[in-house]
Amino acid sequence: MRGKVPTPLVAALAILLLPAAPALAVDPATIANAGTATVVACASCHGKDGGGMASFPRLAGMNAAYLLRQLQDFDSGSRGNAVMKPIATALSPADRNAMANYYAALPIPAALAGAAAPATLDTSPGARLANRGMWSKGVPACVQCHGPGGVGVGAGFPAIAGQPSGYLASQLQAWQKGTRKNDPLELMQHLSRSLSDAEIKAVSEWFARQPAAASGAGS
Amino acid sequence: MKLGAGALAVAVIGPLLLAACDDIRPPRTSYRDKTATTATAPASGVSVVTTAPVADGSFVPPDEADIPEGPFGDIVRRGRDIFTNTGEHAAAYVGNGLSCSNCHLDAGRLANSAPLWGAYVRYPAYRSKNQRVNTYTERLQGCFVYSMDGKAPPADSPVMVALESYSFWMSQGAPVGATLTGAGYPKDFKPPQPPDHARGRKVFEENCALCHGADGQGQKVAGRYVFPPLWGGDSYNWGAGMHQLDNAAGFIKANMPFGRGGSLSDQQAWDVAMFMNAHERPQDPRFKGDLAATRKQFHDDPNSLYGLEVDGRVLGANPAR
């Protein structure tokens, strides 16, 4: 365009060109805490503060791109989950994006963000698997991808620190069984097959005790 | 010598290894263990895993939990900590963002990942890299100068004493002078076709960028690398063994993607090794101002791209800082 277009006109055009959904979308806080006609309130399972409980994961402070991809994968079925599938499918793409951003921006609940014990002093089986791996079976240390203490690295490697142990164990079992298969390069499906039930329990409980922190994508 | 964006001729790789600088790898001698793996040439471009599984015949180092209590054990643990977090525990001698354990997995214990127990029993040894007999101490110092792009810790420094103690402890029971199965990186395999930059880029994007980033610069948490940078100013320099295509291909084939070692084909491993090593990195510290002369003196080897033009750039001409 050669001539100058008045700014208000540009703004008006931009609004017109946007997909209809965002303008009419329900506020993410409303979806989170009250739900809609088709979507149950996220807080009813993930907690009012998004901190998770039992086998329901913490969402607060997680990487937004990771959360968005999970919603997409629940919808597609590459992450099989009978509870989340209908919810993810009911959310529009714009709502999924809004919910991912909403929870990524929520502060990590104080109860989950305590001080870390020095990892080198902890010689429990869970700590050892987390920090050293089990290379005799080809299993790297969890922290080598999920970051020190499991705080998460970027969009590809979610925080596992401060996640409920029941959730972590259920995911390792889901990777083993192949009901969850949305891992890049099949990294988790592959390594989970080398883990025993006792090892899954030990490492899940260890990470559940680790303090959650904002993950450091590119920081 | 000029190379296009495409193929690099590597037809003569095997025999020339004798003359290659043998950084990282244990030195070659006639004492090669008969149980060591040998590659079988793939009939077509099909993926063939040529590396041996870790278990069969490999030396098994003692368990980390068995490091003894007391002053010797304390220094062994200190060596392990330096090895796995080199920038923090040996900061004065490290010039980049790497740790020893980035290329020597499982804290230097893993077979086919140039384990310390494979190298420790092979020194003192003659090295073509500097054309004299090197002690194990000098070998470790070389790691700091090239792979860590830093400077050599003095032989009697606490850092060197700790690393040697850790190596010695790990190697207990290993026969002195033997080239053990699983030592070094698997390197006796060749790609069906010469390695190719464009194919390597594709392998990188599909298998490596997830962790190392689309720009190969790794990923950090709280200022520290979780995934190491593969090139650029925080990676190994042009004198490091990993800049050699055979070393890189061997490491990648056996160990990458991380946790999925052996899943790439021989061709993919060589292609992506070439792609990775066709990027700028810190200058070879032996460089005295003349790229061609440095290549002739130290890189006269088809496994080195240093001083060659690849994808329109002369490598080593604009080293990263």
N-to-C SSE string of chain B, H for helix and E for strand:
HHHHHEEHHHHEEHHHEE
Major β-sheet strand ordering of chain B = 1-2
Q: Main sheet of chain B, how many strands, which sense, barrel?
A: 2 strands, antiparallel
Beta fraction of chain A: under 5%
CATH C-level category of the largest domain in chain A: Mainly Alpha
**Oligomer status:** heterodimer
Percent of residues in beta strands of chain B: 5-15%
Q: Would you kindly provide a written description of the structure presented here, covering whatever features stand out?
A:
The complex is a heterodimer of chains A (219) and B (321). Chain A is mainly alpha-helical. Chain A folds into two domains: 24-106, Orthogonal Bundle (Cytochrome Bc1 Complex, Chain D, domain 2); 115-209, Orthogonal Bundle (Cytochrome Bc1 Complex, Chain D, domain 2). Chain A contains twelve helices and no strands. In chain A, helix 5 packs across helix 6 (84-90), helix 5 (64-76) runs antiparallel to helix 7 and helix 8 crosses helix 12 (197-209). Chain A is globular. Residues 9-23 of chain A have low confidence and may be disordered. Chain B is mainly alpha-helical and 321 residues long. Chain B folds into two domains: 1-26 and 186-321, Cytochrome c-like domain (Cytochrome Bc1 Complex, Chain D, domain 2); 52-183, Cytochrome Bc1 Complex, Chain D, domain 2 (Orthogonal Bundle). In chain B, 31% of the residues lie in helices and 5% in strands. Chain B has twelve helices and six strands. In chain B, the strands form three sheets. In chain B, strands 1-2 form a two-stranded antiparallel sheet. In chain B, a hairpin with a 2-residue loop joins strand 3 (219-221) and strand 4 (224-227). The radius of gyration of chain B is 19 Å and the shape is globular. Chain A binds chain B through residues 120, 123, 132-133, 135-136, 138-140, 144-145, 147-148, 151-154, 156, 184-187, 190-191, 215-219, and chain B through 54-55, 64-65, 81, 105-107, 109-110, 207, 210-211, 219-224, 226-227, 257-261.
